[in-house]
Amino acid sequence: MTEFDFIRKYLQNQQQDHQVVLGIGDDAAIVRPQAGCDLCFSADMLLKKKHFFESITPEDLAWKVLAVNISDMAAMGAKPKWALLSAGLRELDEDWLRRFCNSFFDLAQRFGVTLIGGDTTRGDLVFNVTIIGELPQGQALRRDAAKVGDDIWVSGKIGLAASALNCVLKQCDLPSEIFQQCEAELLRPMPRVALGQAILNVAHAAQDVSDGLAQDIGHILAASNVGAEIWADEVPTLPSLKAVLPREQWLQYTLAGGDDYELVFTAPQNYREALLAAAQKSDTPITRIGKITDTGRLKVVNSVSDGTEIALISLGFDHFG
Ligand code: ADP
Ligand code: MG
């Protein structure tokens, strides 16, 4: 199979999106944004051995490559619309490509994303997705908008993906049932697009949790020039996971593990009811885990009532750290 067979057979025959003026097949794609919308762009790259194991299935790989990008749109409160996929592949194995594409388009369709272009070259399993979304003009959820006194909220459960990864790396032991629940989060994160859009007019700052909760909250603090207090025991977890891991490990994986693709956001205290309603409408559990302070630093304590500060070995993942 040649590069062009692959493009024609697997990439070109997708459902058409009426805003796509020109899709795959020309030198570049053309899209027409809706009036009153800002366009929102992001790219995320995944590399073998850095972001996934070589043994990963093509279905799980395709899912993750796209999901982490959709998650960036969710974090801005944007509706993901169009994606470009650049792939470095060792060979054009038709069975592998069919499985990869089925999973990629399955996820894309769930979120109304159209693949409008990309590039295919020989490489050692490198993937980059560029994603474009739409936002009501001027309403994006930015990192620099947190205010002193805001509550800090997080969606879903945190630390499961990191626990699975550490179990694979033989850093911890998990009973197989718990491992499987955690591994599902690691392999198939579900981006929180509905929540991101539901909190557009309510939340101040937001971002997705990809490199570790503490580090990611730190980005909001730095951009907004504020501090925060986080209550570790309020961070939503899998109770059976928390029960089986030594506390040190649970804290590390939950507060600094990463790969969660949940949303962390800040909002004024008088919006608690509105937020819980928005979360329910988008079918996404959210939990209040702390508050924005004027201290200029992040302080993680055990709980609301036990203010003992927790020192983390690392705040999160850094490729060059
Ligand atoms: P060019 O030579 O201009 O770079 P290509 O021959 O690489 O164009 O690509 C032909 C068409 O196929 C273009 O529309 C390009 O965006 C699309 N395309 C190539 N690879 C991919 C891919 N992996 N995913 C999506 N679209 C792709
Ligand atoms: Mg060209």
From TrEMBL:
Binding site for Mg(2+) 3: 27, 72, 208
EC class (word): transferase
Binding locations of Mg(2+) 5: 211
GO molecular function annotations of the record: ATP binding; magnesium ion binding; thiamine-phosphate kinase activity
PurM-like N-terminal domain: residues covered: 25-134
Amino-acid positions noted as binding ATP in the UniProt annotation, renumbered to this chain: 118-119, 143, 210
CDD domains found in the cross-reference section: ThiL
Residues binding substrate: 51, 259, 317
Entry EC no(s): 2.7.4.16
Pathway the protein takes part in: Cofactor biosynthesis; thiamine diphosphate biosynthesis; thiamine diphosphate from thiamine phosphate: step 1/1
SUPFAM superfamilies named in the record: PurM C-terminal domain-like, PurM N-terminal domain-like
Binding site for Mg(2+) 1: 44, 119
Ranges where the PurM-like C-terminal domain occurs: 147-300
Positions of Mg(2+) 4 binding: 27, 42, 72
Reaction catalyzed: thiamine phosphate + ATP = thiamine diphosphate + ADP
GO BP term, pick one: thiamine diphosphate biosynthetic process
Ligand binding (Mg(2+) 2): 44, 72
Keywords recorded for this protein, A-Z: ATP-binding, Kinase, Magnesium, Metal-binding, Nucleotide-binding, Thiamine biosynthesis, Transferase
HAMAP family, per the entry: TMP_kinase
UniProt-listed NCBIfam families: thiL (TIGR01379)
Function, in words: Catalyzes the ATP-dependent phosphorylation of thiamine-monophosphate (TMP) to form thiamine-pyrophosphate (TPP), the active form of vitamin B1.
Note, other: Reaction mechanism of ThiL seems to utilize a direct, inline transfer of the gamma-phosphate of ATP to TMP rather than a phosphorylated enzyme intermediate.
Family from the record: Belongs to the thiamine-monophosphate kinase family.
Identification of the protein by name: Thiamine-monophosphate kinase
Source species: Neisseria weixii
Lineage: Bacteria, Pseudomonadati, Pseudomonadota, Betaproteobacteria, Neisseriales
Gene that this sequence comes from: thiL
